[in-house]
Amino acid sequence: MIKDIDGHIYKFFFLVLLLIPLQIVSFEFTFAILFILTIFFLNKRNQKISGDFITSFLFLIILIIIGLFSTFFYKYHYWDIGKDLAYFSKPVLLLFLGYAIIHSIKDNTFLFKAFVYMGITFAFLHLFKVISYAYLFGSSINTIRNVTGLSNHVELLALVFLILSLKYQKMSIFGNKKTTYAVLSLLIISFFLYFSRTMWVAVFLLLLTASGYTKISLKAIKYIGVAILLIASFYIYLFSIEIPRDQPGVSAFLYKMKIAPEEIFMPKVDLENHAALWDHWRAYEAKMAFDQMENHQHLIGRGFGSLVDLQFVAPLNDVGMRYISHLHNGYAMIYYKTGIIGLLFYLLFLLNLYLFTFYKKLKNKDIPITNLIAAIGIYLVFSTLIITGAYNLSDIYLLALGGFLALYNKLKLQSRIEKIE
To answer: What is the enclosing helix (H) or strand (E) of 21?
Structure first.
């Protein structure tokens, strides 16, 4: 009976962790909850840690050590150092908590159920905001998104899990396919109404990898080739037409898609042209960070507490900011804080996840868990470029990854027991 009570408590913890990053603005409060829960699970005597989890965990720990080591060469404000330490620790805590909680729950499908049911809740709330917005038909897409929601990756993962459940019965959430299709329709409608470029790319990468099509093979090359051809054709079309910047409706979304590559990679803009600067903001931040690196800083970075000088007071809040701690481009930020060495360990962390699809074999094929782990790695390769990846303040992918690693370990142990019997 006590174990059943514990199981319900752990499930409640997991649902809270899905809710917190998306609904609570204060990073300090979020981090405090993550820290307290981590201490709670570290004190569990029966907590089992697998080698696969430790490998992934250590790469992120080494990044923190490098950042702290680099800090000793400079005199930064303690508050800025503490914020960076917490910022780089957050994915470590999420990874551990995802692993610890899912490992403590007997139900192997709970992870998927949690995302799906929470995704349904968020989808209803999102659609209600959209429908009840009084100026829906007279506003630009950017305005609608700012009012009703920019994105929701719990909904995105719920959508991915439901699509996969049509093929893998062990991932099935509902008793019949009619209910599954009804929920899928709800999630797809909500998904479209976010008008988020990141979500579009994310769902494509996750489904492609989870289905095994990013594993290097002749079949995978064909699928990837078709995908590249479609994307190239789409951009050829976009660059063949004139799309005004401030047009309402779908034109605004197409304009954002059109400028996406140069928004990241082309930082040469006129500071007096605020519209052009905003369209290339990610690239501008990264350029300022690279320009301010000197000598040994390229190797180990400028450490925790370091700030990037934007060269002017940018309207990033009510009073404006000239010095910023975090960048949209996660690779540039990791490089700035921890140098080439830190960036290398982050890339090794991502590579280790991707290699699950090659070298981690399970006889149990009912849940494509190794492909799901690889899918998180592939997604983080992309998202680190534009929304800091694992270090995004509202990220829930490290929590999911921890859960996947726990589920992989449980399925591996079950396969061994079945083999012995």
So the answer is: helix 2-23
Query: Within 10 A of 357 (CB to CB), how many other CB atoms are there?
Result: 22
Cβ–Cβ < 8 Å for 185, 175: no
Find the distance separating the first CA and the last CA of the chain, reported in whole Å: 28
Q: Nearest CA to 90 among 33, 41, 52?
A: 33
Q: What is the pLDDT of residue 420?
A: 55
State the DSSP string of 114-135: HHHHHHHHHHHHHHHHHHH-TT
What three-state secondary structure class fits 379?
A: helix
Helices in 75-176 by DSSP H: which ranges? 78-103, 110-132, 141-148, 153-165
Q: Give the count of beta carbons closer than 10 Å to the beta carbon of residue 223.
A: 15
Q: Buried b / exposed e across 58-70, counting CB within 10 Å, b at 16+?
A: ebbebbbebbbbb
| Tokens at 283, concatenated | 């690239």
In sequence order, what are the residues at sequence separation of 6 or more whose Cβ sits closer than 8 angstroms to the Cβ of residue 101? 10, 13, 14, 17, 41, 402, 403, 406
* Interval 389-395 mean pLDDT: 87
Closest CA to 40 of 74, 70, 16, 68: 16
pLDDT, tens only, 170-217:
888 887 889 999 999 999 999 999 988 889 889 999 998 888 877 766
Mean pLDDT of 11-25: 82
CB 47 within 8 A of CB 100: yes
> Exposed (0-12), middle (13-18) or buried (19+): which is 103, by Cβ within 10 Å?
buried
Q: What is the dihedral of CA 42, 47, 53, 58, to 10 degrees?
A: 30
Distances (CA, A) of 413 to 31, 52, 168, 369, 407: 32, 13, 20, 14, 10
CA 99, CA 97: separation in Å to the nearest integer? 5
- The answer to whether the beta carbons of residues 361 and 369 sit under 8 Å apart is no
What's this model's pTM, rounded to 2 decimal places? 0.87
